[in-house]
Amino acid sequence: MKKFLEILGVVVLIGGVSGVLRELTGWFPFMGFTRFLTENVWFLDGKELFANIVIAVLGFVVLIVADRVKQA
User: What are residue 70's phi and psi, to 5 degrees?
Assistant: First the structure.
């Protein structure tokens, strides 16, 4: 479970950070898999940067939780 949470946290963190960089600079169009979430959800229209920041923070939180989970 710990390894799964670590992998999930890293993937979500990288996706959020690359989404933030894509929104700010226009770079990383190939790594912005969060683009599918932020551009296709109607209530996130115009709030893509905020949504990507939240996704990156969520990935960081999952990494913290993974660190606190005991190895089974």
Answer: -75, 140
